[in-house]
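Deliverable D4.2, example record:
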Amino acid sequence: MILAGCTALAAGGILWQVMARQPEPASGEGSSRIRVDVVHQDGSTTSREYVTDDPVLGDLLVKEGLISGEEGSMGLFVTEVDGETVDYEKNGSWWKLSIDGEDAPSGVDSTPVEDGTIYTWTYTVD
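Output generated by the structure prediction step:
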């Protein structure tokens, strides 16, 4: 009986440590919690949550290492998301950005971060 109590106490302590390490909700004016989903070429999906004060999605995702690309006259052309690279010239592949299920009306480097929004990158082939 004592052993069972010690095990429960130890498990509770581990649970508390795990819970204490999870990110706290955004605090302060302008803080946003967002989710970014990535639909890979093979159809698998990964998701990440961010709490940020960054006002622009592109700045956040480049800083976090989720996306990279090439700067051009129209802004950042995203060529890599979550470690997966596209090559439009080779096979017509590109990354499509959606916001809450709708095609993004602008590029990632001019897309505002909005609290509660789900942004999705989808590997796309024309």
